[in-house]
Design goal:
17-stranded mixed β-sheet; disordered C terminus; mainly beta; 366 residues; disordered N terminus; 5-stranded mixed β-sheet
């Protein structure tokens, strides 16, 4: 951690911040290796410090008895048009992951802009692996039936996220017509997206802050941007069919997207200002955005891990950040590592509107 500094600067802040000490240790909780973390430096901008951290590593689950069968469940068929299928594994109702994420089951009728009805099913969310020796990964699936699109939706139960840095190691496969979405969501006008469209070139990712159209229905050019996926450790273009680390940094007044640690886009348009949850979806509705998947088509979003570092609207005010832990630029990323041995003594309280913040010990609480 840098030596303490005494800088002052203006920051636009409008949330209550606080310390949340480490949560209970579980097989998916890296706090077990770094006891006592009370806040985190977890963005390429080391001035950004967050109070909460969750890391879900699906690779480690092969020998856990509560996971169950690791074979992929059968795809949804034409008769399963209600979305009432049960969860595919006891894992989705257990432990830290079950407390934090929940599969969603909801239907959407066809409309002029979305000509294919969509039915979300829990059967499309499952744990599997490529071979018996491969690490486990989480899969979200979508497939096209004669009369509807079967889709998948996984959401955080926490709806009070207000600023975060979120990273997912993922890959996508399948024919044109699907959208793999990873995004913060409050409303259709308060949303920040990482999206991969299977109709796009394999090296293309979409980075979007909503709204994407104005009240007259015209496309807002600043809303959505195509960015090139860079291959890990290389200047060459990558492919969304390979494993990549996708990152969204949501800071006050700024959104930034990274792929494999490389900053791809910085956007000030449409940065969300409202408390949100985080959603992961694999879907299609046959419209202009996703395209229309051919009947019989199937696409998947595979995820090895999810790393979330964030603040919320309901962190209790007051307290001191006594141990700052880094998430970026460490040997065994994404496990946290203590940034410095000394207490930072960062006093945390309630801040709102445009305030004069004091930059203590080189870090500031957003």
């Amino acid at each position: 951690m840098p030596a303490p500094k005494s800088w002052t600067l203006l920051l636009l802040l409008h949330l209550t911040t606080s310390v949340q000490f480490c949560t209970a240790v579980s097989p998916l909780d890296p706090h077990s290796t770094v006891p006592g973390c009370s806040c985190y430096q977890a963005t390429k901008n080391d001035a950004a410090v967050f109070l909460n951290h969750q890391f879900f590593d699906f690779r480690t689950l092969a020998n856990e008895t509560f996971v169950g069968d690791l074979s992929a469940p059968a795809p949804i068929d034409d008769n399963q048009d209600e979305g009432i299928e049960p969860v595919t594994s006891p894992f989705f109702g257990k432990g830290l992951f079950g407390e934090y994420f929940a599969p969603a089951s909801w239907n959407k009728s066809a409309s002029p802009g979305s000509p294919v009805a969509m039915v979300n099913s829990q059967q499309n969310i499952y744990l599997t692996r490529d071979t018996s020796d491969s690490p486990v990964h989480l899969t979200l699936r979508t497939n096209r039936l004669s009369d509807f699109q079967s889709a998948s939706d996984l959401e955080t139960i926490e709806t009070g996220l207000l600023h975060a840095t979120i990273r997912i190691r993922a890959r996508v496969a399948g024919p044109p017509g699907a959208c793999a979405g990873m995004f913060t969501y409050h409303s259709d006008d308060q949303e920040s997206d990482i999206e991969i469209l299977t109709r796009d070139d394999h090296s293309t990712m979409r980075a979007t802050n909503q709204p994407g159209v104005d009240p007259q229905g015209k496309v807002i050019p600043e809303a959505s941007t195509q960015v090139v996926i860079s291959a890990a450790g290389s200047e060459a273009n990558g492919s969304w069919t390979d494993w990549n680390e996708y990152q969204l940094d949501w800071l006050p007044g700024q959104s930034e997207w990274f792929v494999n640690g490389v900053s791809k886009l910085n956007k000030t348009y449409g940065v969300p200002t409202e408390a949100s949850n985080f959603q992961i979806k694999m879907w299609s509705a046959g419209g202009a955005w996703t395209g229309n998947m051919s009947v019989g088509g199937l696409a998947t979003l595979d995820i090895e891990w999810i790393d979330m570092v964030y603040n919320t609207t309901h962190d209790a005010p007051g307290g001191s950040c006594k141990k700052v832990c880094r998430v970026d630029n460490i040997a065994n990323n994404p496990l946290p590592q203590v940034a410095g041995a000394d207490e930072c003594a960062i006093r945390i309280g309630v801040v709102s509107a445009l305030v004069l913040g004091v930059f203590w010990a080189g870090v500031i609480i957003l």
